[in-house]
Design a protein that fits this description.
Length: 474
């Protein structure tokens, strides 16, 4: 049953893939349709030509041969009839498209000395034309015939040959499949060259698609591929124009945010100094508590401004900049020293582990990597309970440097572990204050350095474990 289910799913996927609109399939069908139309047009020309001049009556030699037979055997009527019958059978064989339908077979009528000596089809009335040698439409009975009559030079023998006024080629198509059979035979030879020509023609298109797909969300530089094809140039120019406008707009927004953050830092510092001075001059417990709240709010605002500046710096770091070789374990340890006071104030134990015998080095921009590590450690301290433990570990794994930060906080539900990297997004159930920029800064720095991050449950299913991988410098 499991095998049948897998097979059914595979078939369903193939059907969906075939039903999905495809430009390659569209071009392929277009080429096949053009080939079919060309074949139909060629066939239509032959049909028109065959209808314009019937097959048998156009040939003078047929008439001359029948006249010769009739004249040479006029002294022997029996042999004359036998010869004309044999000649008529030859005509019937030549006109094989009609031999299955005697009512539509060609009619041969011969007169000699004004007397009818042979009529191939007695059921067809005698026919007469107006002018010898010309193909005319003649009604005989309920049918219309295309007849032609010729008279011998001695005027003693007259031969009339008539074909039914129908599209002769219709019977050829019906009886011998002259229309469908060539198409059926040539279809494989049409499909493969058509598919190959379409795939070769779309190679520049696929190159543009490949370069676009390989771009990261932060790479807004113009496409390097410049196609010489006039069909692709508007597309590439349009993509480059869009990238340029998005890049300019993002640059203006980053500049605005950076300027606003710099402008906000000065009044926040002034506010803090004034509140601290007022707090030092008053002994009223109520006023001192209000001022302490103001200072805490000032700290949160200053932290938000600092994170905005870090985010702008991480976004503006050029992707093609030559990174420096940094001792990653020492860099993380340095950042931990800066936040030890924050951890001690809440009784949180900071445990840092690394292999001193195997230094871990990375290529990157120092300030950005310090910001990345600092945000992870500060978040772990912030969300851990008082008296808890935060474990920070650095090691080398194959060709990558690994940083792991584990806390004992409330953690993040699996459904939100991807969204928390969005700017200003916070867990709705989170009670701790914050700006929602810490993990966004981490993701931005890692994207610039070719790294990645994964969130999982902490030890024993409690807390959060953030694991970062960065390319190692060897």
């Amino acid at each position: 049953m499991n095998f049948l289910s897998v097979a059914a799913k595979a078939i369903a996927r193939r059907i969906r893939r075939w039903l999905q609109p495809s430009l390659v399939r569209r071009l392929l069908f277009a080429q096949i349709a053009v080939a079919g139309l060309l074949w139909s047009a060629t066939l239509a020309f032959f049909l028109y030509d065959s209808n314009r001049l019937p097959e048998l009556v156009r040939y003078d030699r047929i008439f001359l041969s029948i006249m010769a037979c009739a004249q040479n055997l006029a002294f022997d009527p029996a042999r004359q009839q036998q010869t004309l019958k044999a000649f008529d059978m030859a005509l019937q064989e030549t006109s094989s498209d009609f031999k299955s339908d005697q009512d539509r077979a060609p009619v041969l009528q011969v007169w000699q000395q004004g007397r009818l000596i042979y009529n191939s089809t007695p059921s067809v009335p005698l026919m007469h034309t107006q002018m010898p040698g010309r193909v005319e439409r003649v009604r005989a009975g309920e049918r219309v015939w295309r007849a032609r009559a010729m008279t011998s030079p001695l005027q003693d023998t007259r031969v009339l040959l008539a074909e039914p006024d129908v599209l002769r080629l219709n019977f050829t198509i019906e009886h011998r499949s002259y229309y469908l059979l060539p198409l059926a035979i040539s279809l494989p030879f049409i499909v493969f060259p058509a598919w190959l020509s379409v795939m070769l023609a779309l190679r520049p298109w696929r190159q543009v698609t490949k370069e676009t797909a390989e771009r990261g969300p932060a790479d807004l530089s113009p496409l390097t591929f410049e196609p010489p094809h006039k069909e692709l140039q508007p597309l590439v120019n349009g993509i480059n124009g869009l990238l340029r406008s998005v890049r300019d707009r993002a640059s203006r927004e980053r500049g605005l945010i950076a300027d606003a953050a710099n402008e906000l830092r000065t009044p926040l510092d002034a506010m803090r100094m004034n509140v601290e001075a007022l707090k030092a001059q008053t002994a009223d417990p109520g006023q001192r508590e209000l001022m302490a709240n103001l200072l805490r709010s000032n700290d949160r605002a200053a932290r938000l401004v600092g994170q905005l500046q870090q985010l702008m710096r991480s976004d503006e770091m050029p992707r093609d900049a030559s990174p420096a070789t940094l001792a990653f374990d020492e860099l993380v340890q340095e950042r931990i020293r800066l936040v030890e006071a924050l951890a001690r104030a809440r009784g949180i134990v900071l445990e840092f582990t690394h292999d001193e015998a195997t230094p871990v080095a990375v290529h990157g921009e120092r300030e950005s990597l310090i910001s990345m590590a600092g945000n992870l450690v500060e978040n772990a301290i912030k969300y851990s309970p008082d008296g808890g433990m935060v474990k920070v570990r650095v090691w080398r794994e194959a060709s990558e440097a690994v940083l792991q930060v584990t806390d004992e906080g409330p953690g993040i539900p699996p459904a939100l572990r991807e969204r928390v990297f969005d700017r200003f997004f916070r867990n709705p159930d989170q009670t701790q204050s914050g700006s929602g920029l810490g993990l966004a800064i981490v993701r931005s720095v890692l994207e610039k350095h070719g790294g990645r991050i994964a969130l999982s449950d902490g030890e024993g299913g409690r807390g959060l474990c953030a694991t970062v991988w960065l390319p190692s410098s060897g």
